Amino acid sequence: MKDNSYREDRKELQELLKQFENLKNGRQHSFLEEESFGKLIDHYQEKEELSKAMEVAEIGSDQYPYSSMLLIKKADIFLANRRYHDALKILEQASLLDSTDINLYILKTDAYLAMDQQEKAVELLQEALSLFEGEEKIELLFELADVYDDYEDFDKVFDCLKMILEEEPNNEEALYKICFWTDFTGRNEESIRLHQQIIDDFPYNELAWFNLAAAYQGIKLYEKALDAYQYAITIDEKFDYAYRNMGDAYIRLRKYKEAIEVLEKVNELAKPEDVIFEAIGHCYDRLKNFAQARLYYRKASHMRPDDSKLYYKIACTYFKEGHWENSIRQLELAMKIHRYPAEYNLLAGECKMQMGLFKDAIQYFSNVIGVRPKNAAGWEALIRCLYRATYFDEAIEQCDAALRITQNKPLFLFYKSAVLLGNGKSKEAILQLERAMEKAPRLLKRFVELNPAILQNQLVVDVLARFKRRRSI
User: Fold this and answer.
1) CA distances from 141 to 103, 106, 149, 163 (A)
2) Is the separation of the CB atoms in 334 and 315 below 8 Å?
3) How much is the mean pLDDT over the chain?
4) Residue 311 CA to chain centroid, in angstroms?
5) What is the Cα–Cα distance from 218 to 205, expressed in whole angstroms?
6) Among residues 102, 256, 358, 397, which one has the fewest Cβ atoms lying within 10 Å of its Cβ?
7) What is the pLDDT of residues 20-40, one digit of tens each?
8) What is the pLDDT of residue 71?
9) Comparing 102 with 42, which gets the higher pLDDT?
């Protein structure tokens, strides 16, 4: 049937082209109806033969001088040729003949936007809204939304889409678009009210349930979001975006097993994606199933081989298992892509330190300080490494440097005290410990973690006892 229809349309077009040639060449009894001129113009515009389209429009307008339809098509050709002022003149003529054609307003809007006159486009469309109803009004509201988007008045884009859904609650295009603009503008509460109303009237609208859920998710009401997503997938069990967002909600609630289940469903329903594999890997990571986490991080890395972060995540799983060499191998892959991220060097340094390769570790920690000199993490790791390696003199120098650069963070007073004790400088060490306890007693735990045996030193015990008595008075 479709094939027959196509052949008939083609045959009709060939006949129209022949008749137009006869008319153009002044042959007797040649005649074309107004609608036929319109079809010929459309044909040439589709083929991007604008000069021929204009020729048809000119001859058509001569034959039918009171045809607003032909004038509007002529204006459309002017727009395609970037002759915006000419297009507007023609549209003014057409509006005198028929001001009820919606294409007048849409083409005028296109001309104003092309001339960077957004205010005129908005004014025109707002005026036109009062003239049209039903589908035509919906079309104008979409046009107005695009204008607001064009000059970044995003709240008004949301307003237009809301108006469309108030007129036509099941409009799929508006339902899809308003979900994005709700998230972008943060107008989640309004979206919740709007979609609750739609659902009251149309309870089997899965897009409305999805948008309601997304709005709840936007204000961190994850349990309510999950309930609404459940309705969406009950109505449409192949709604992959609902499963995807459910995965995010479950992760936020730290329900990692449930997140894995729905994310695996996404992979069943849609083409596998790196971000889904990475999210599943993250869930297994949090469940301490590191082998499975690596499996999914690797699946993601095969799809995104230039993302060093995935190799870093694999390295972290090995580190958590105490497999230092495997961790280092993954970090080397990551650092071939991006050499100096602080977290990569920090983890590499920790691995080397655990392996007893202190000089290598010191180099990695020095890289961290080079990249982030004011961040305490690099200094803390470097000093801890020097302490474990019993490089006490250098450790004291680095404590002083850390105190100077980090504006006297108390942690480095505790570390300096520990290093001085290790270096046999007990008197100075106790003075530093007293200063540290005055400033941040809560960091004592970090001091002890550096060397738990430090609590066997009677001088240290006396200082701690004295501070304990002082706090109890």
Assistant:
1) 14, 11, 12, 8
2) yes
3) 90
4) 22
5) 20
6) 397
7) 776 776 665 566 777 877 787
8) 84
9) 102
Global pTM? 0.81
Within 10 A of 462 (CB to CB), how many other CB atoms are there?
11
The CATH code that applies to domain 1-99 is 1.25.40
Inform me whether the pLDDT recorded for 4 exceeds 60.
Answer: no
Place of tokens 């074309």: 32
Instruction: Write down the pLDDT at residue 30.
Output: 61
Task: Tell me which residue has tokens 């958590």.
Answer: 320
- CB 129 within 8 Å of CB 140: yes
Of the pLDDT bands very low, low, confident and very high (cuts 50, 70, 90), residue 8 is: low
Count of residues making up the chain = 473
Q: Which residues of the chain are in CATH 1.25.40 domains?
A: 1-99
Residue with tokens 């400088």: 425
Cβ atoms of residues 360 and 347 within 8 Å: no
Residue 396 CA to residue 415 CA, distance in Å, equals 9
Q: How far, in Å, CA of 301 to CA of 308, rounded?
A: 9
The pLDDT value recorded for residue 434 is 93
In whole angstroms, give the CA distance from residue 148 to residue 163: 14
One-letter amino acid for residue 227 of the chain: D
User: In one letter, which amino acid is 158?
Assistant: F
What one-letter code names the amino acid at 416? K
